[in-house]
Amino acid sequence: MDLKKTVLTAIAIITIGSLAYFMKTAPGSNSIFEFINIDNVFNLKSQSDFTLPDCGFKYSRRLRFSIVSYSEPEKIFKKGQAIKDYLEANMSLEVKIVVLRDYSSLIDLLKVGQVEVVWAAPLIYKTVKDSINYNLLLKTLEGASPYYEGAIAVRKDSGIKSIEDLKGKRMAFVDEASTSGFFLQNKMINDLGHSSLTFFSEFEFVGSHDRALQLLYEGRFDAASVGLLAMNVAGVDTDELAIIAKTPKIPNAPILVNNAVDPATRARIYELFIAPSKHRKGAEFIKTLDEIDRFSGFTTADTSEYEF
């Protein structure tokens, strides 16, 4: 294993370890989460070997809702708890939050289809939508918009004003499968006739939008590729950062439902997400999501939107 892979593996282990510790130390929270890391937790020989532990439940009794560990542990906990509390308040079932360590684990989980509902990522859905047993239910609203942008951020005191100024600099990307943390920015660089492999003196996939901004703020990288709405990070004074480029807009994160889920349950989940204000704890649910990541609700979606 080369040095870059060693560093990235260490980052991923630290991230999920911190998240697991936070869950254990948060009062009353240690029983609602499962942690999925396809390679390291289950030690699988192949994808076909993978099944989640058999809990012997019907969808009317229990439901797994999957989210990716894309951010600070506290944010992931609050988001998962909000989803669980809201769904359980309005459905006759127990909700288990499945936390995926990274985007690669999300791809694997979608392919094996062992979770009922998935808060996915746009690029991943675009890539695997024709080969998975999930249907698109809705997409998120972020800052009241059904679309979002990626950005390239730098420190204001860096003297960097444009993408061309980044030649020979150090770039922090989020993940190879991140739409707004790599894919869109990399395409912008390609469209200018460059390759990230040779354009930057150094680049790394650091695991999350928050971490990319933190490393930029600390001066360990000259630029960070992140989602534009991810600019609010604890410990980072964003007044010291500047946006030098924005990507084209793309649809927000899709909410996917396993085709094996019965129609009545699927319809109920749709009702609860499309109009939270009409249901118990709905206002509190949206308020919590807005405080975490500026999620302001959910709206209709079409697979054709994910052909960017």
Automatic annotation (TrEMBL):
Coiled coil: none
Pfam family, any one: Phosphonate-bd
InterPro entries: PhnD
GO terms of biological process kind: transmembrane transport
Cellular component aspect of the GO annotation: ATP-binding cassette (ABC) transporter complex
The entry's keywords: Signal
Domain of life: Bacteria
Family: Belongs to the phosphate/phosphite/phosphonate binding protein family.
Annotated PANTHER family: PHOSPHONATES-BINDING PERIPLASMIC PROTEIN
Protein known as: Solute-binding protein family 3/N-terminal domain-containing protein
